[in-house]
Amino acid sequence: xxxxxxxxxxxxxxxxxxxxxxxxxxxxxxxxxxxxxxxxxxxxxxxxxxxxxxxxxxxxxxxxxxxxxxxxxxxxxxxxxxxxxxxxxxxxxxxxxxxxxxxxxxxxxxxxxxxxxxxxxxxxxxxxxxxxxxxxxxxxxxxxxxxxxxxxxxxxxxxxxxxxxxxxxxxxxxxxxxxxxxxxxxxxxxxxxxxxxxxxxxxxxxxxxxxxxxxxxxxxxxxxxx
Amino acid sequence: xxxxxxxxxxxxxxxxxxxxxxxxxxxxxxxxxxxxxxxxxxxxxxxxxxxxxxxxxxxxxxxxxxxxxxxxxxxxxxxxxxxxxxxxxxxxxxxxxxxxxxxxxxxxxxxxxxxxxxxxxxxxxxxxxxxxxxxxxxxxxxxxxxxxxxxxxxxxxxxxxxxxxxxxxxxxxxxxxxxxxxxxxxxxxxxxxxxxxxxxxxxxxxxxxxxxxxxxxxxxxxxxxxxxxxxxxxxxxxxxxxxxxxxxxxxxxxxxxxxxxxxxxxxxxxxxxxxxxxxxxxxxxxxxxxxxxxxxxxxxxxxxxxxxxxxxxxxxxxxxxxxxxxxxxxxxxxxxxxxxxxxxxxxxxxxxxxxxxxxxxxxxxxxxxxxxxxxxxxxxxxxxxxxxxxxxxxxxxxxxx
Lengths: 226, 401
Description:
Strand content of chain A: 25-35%
Mean pLDDT of chain B: 89
Radius of gyration of chain B: 31 Å
Strand order of the largest sheet of chain A: 6-7-8-3-9-10
Low-confidence stretches of chain A: none
Largest sheet of chain A: 6 strands, mixed
Oligomer: heterodimer
Helix content of chain A: 25-40%
Shape of chain A: globular
Structural class of chain A: alpha/beta
Helix content of chain B: 55-70%
Shape of chain B: elongated
CATH superfamily of chain A: P-loop containing nucleotide triphosphate hydrolases
Largest interface: A-B, 28 and 25 residues
Number of helices of chain A: 6
Structural class of chain B: alpha+beta
CATH class of chain A: Alpha Beta
Distance between the termini of chain B: 31 Å
Number of strands of chain A: 10
Order of helices and strands of chain B: HHEHEEHEEHEEHEHEHEHHHHEEHH
CATH architecture of chain A: 3-Layer(aba) Sandwich
Low-confidence stretches of chain B: none
Number of domains of chain A: 1
Order of helices and strands of chain A: EEEHEEHEHHHEHEEE
């Protein structure tokens, strides 16, 4: 379970302070799939980066399974990301010098749990996202949608508790977007992974079971959609 | 271990899939640095070796024996020479006496020393005979013949160092007048002229000990010094101990202790070499620094992504250090191979000519090992600085600027 308590993020621009997030609180249950929506500049990506432990909030707490992870050291946060969190970036964010297969199993190498064959698992995950025949391809040889699905497979390599996806379809065509979102839905259903994704497309609400709407850094709505 | 494995994996992939032009250029720069680091010391070693060889073979011998204390001569020389030559490791020993004299030829008059030698014994210790450029070597019975160094004779060779203070036009067969410091004046036929390339030797003149005894009759069976030649693997200190066991009125010096001129030249060469080495290591360090700096700046976002997906900063940093080490190792290996199999054979065919003779490039494994270690350390340090700076940037700043 993920609990967010009174979360704020303040950026200092000289004497001017910008409240990117202002007193956000919500709870996401295990196995949930939540969409964060809002206009451009509303704080969607900022919120996701705080939740994904890529950034530190100015105030408030993020509690994961009862543990406050907000004040952990950088090393501990890095380990937590590696072991329990998966992150899918808006811009694919694959490593250009690695094949699709290598991109997926790289975080597994870092974790290096005994008894787990991460190369085999990476192959299975690529098959799961429909790219079983493209494992030896380099990112530049893949379409945007395919790259994003490789990124999703990578986010799954360590059996994460939560996947964060920051506008995963922003740069994709309609067909690719649908495939990516359906992949996330299927992972959520089959693997019981919490999926929290950011989108600016109102149609994407249909993939989620919960909705968080932000406006000027404040939470406007928290709904259970289904 | 996992961090190292991931670092090696990232380094390998970036080398294999990286920009081949940049890799080749970086390695090429380090090959040049390596050859530069090898060349100057090898030349200095070769020149020093050449100088030392000529010093020992024409001037000092391996051991110099002189009278101890206030004595000015060694007495009972013949017995002593026999005793010295019976010691294991001694090839030969030669007694030498010296007297100052003025040499005259045409209108030229110069002052130099004249050395009395037993030509047979002396030829076993020194290689003056092998350096004759005119005429022949002394015979033991010669009385009216003299052997002149090129710096005394001149021999019309205007390019020699001391030509202006030589007799300038003397050749083998010419007659020169020698006035000794004890007032005796005698005319000699120049039997031969030698040019060893070592100026201290080439300002010497030799007559037979038979003739020397007639100039200084009180020096019979006496010598100002004895020069000893050793076998290549003989231990000078052990031989000195054995000789000291024969007599207790002797002082000993090894050739190194007499090599003041050579030593100061070697020290100057070494200083020049150290300055050049610092410049070379700086070039190596700056090359690796620039390549790594440009690379990490270009890959800042990728580094941010790697950190975001859980790759430890340490692993990423080590991957860059491995790459720097790769450049250094490949540059070093190619540099050493090119130097050993191209530069050294080429220089051996066209050696550098010094006043004391040709100098051949001579490398020392211990120096090469030390150079490799320093080059690796410099490359690692140079790569670490830009990587460390990027690793300090927040993940979000690295990815999104």
